[in-house]
Design brief:
about 240 residues; mainly alpha; two-stranded antiparallel ribbon
């Protein structure tokens, strides 16, 4: 319940998920549950009354096209339809470049587009596009995301993910351990080095993320903070 409250305090507003997630059902009987739900519902109603509907629709279109194409790509790969998957990947890369131009134009004009302006999903579209952009673009807009998080209109974990990606791309240690990289030589995924790994779970907990052990287990990986340099080579 404490992590859930922290997420809400940090601006998480997905009330549909809150009420329908089966994993949260044991919390429904707690006295704090109804208060949490009512507080979140009031926040959502207030936010929705102030949305920029036109901008929201534009960003939701980007989000839905992005997620739909990538789900289809994953399906084709699972079905070993590699030819179709490769063709779709070219379309995805082209669409990504178009989305980057659209989103950066919006950011240059209006600053970071937070959930207070367009809602959670449309705001997430902005993050997704910038997260997948080149390093120069990420560096240009990370300060806007930082400011949005400070004002509680963007998710702290999104900032953590972007900062980790920038660090890894720059050859530095990541702070939250969120980046999973792929080694083309071994054909395996691995966790690039994490700064001060003994305290990474404390940093993750502070922004509502699960532990590193849970994270790597979810992706079928192993990670030993004492032997980070051995992970990529499979030692």
């Amino acid at each position: 319940m404490a992590l859930l409250k922290l997420s809400v305090d940090n601006g998480w507003t997905n009330i549909t998920h809150l009420e329908s997630d089966a994993d949260l059902r044991p919390l429904h009987s707690l006295p704090e549950w109804s208060l949490l739900v009512e507080d979140l519902r009031k926040k959502v109603e207030h936010m929705e009354s102030m949305y920029d509907k036109q901008l929201q629709e534009e960003l939701l279109a980007i989000y839905k096209a992005d997620q739909g194409a990538r789900r289809e790509y994953s399906y084709l790969k699972r079905m070993n339809e590699n030819g179709k998957a490769d063709s779709l990947l070219k379309v995805i890369h082209h669409d990504d470049s178009v989305s980057i131009k659209k989103v950066t134009r919006i950011l240059d004009d209006r600053g970071w587009i937070g959930r207070d302006l367009v809602g959670e999903q449309a705001s997430e579209a902005v993050f997704i596009v910038i997260y997948r952009a080149d390093l120069q673009t990420q560096l240009k807009y990370v300060s806007l995301l930082t400011d949005a998080v400070d004002h509680k209109v963007a998710r702290p974990e999104h900032l953590a993910f972007l900062e980790d990606q920038i660090a890894v791309s720059s050859g530095k240690e990541q702070v939250y351990g969120s980046v999973i990289a792929y080694d083309h030589e071994t054909g395996k995924n691995y966790i690039p080095p994490v700064k001060d790994p003994d305290h990474v779970d404390e940093r993750r907990e502070a922004i509502g993320l699960d532990t590193m052990s849970d994270y790597v287990r979810m992706y079928g990986l192993t990670w030993d903070p004492k032997h980070q340099s051995d992970v990529k080579s499979g030692k």
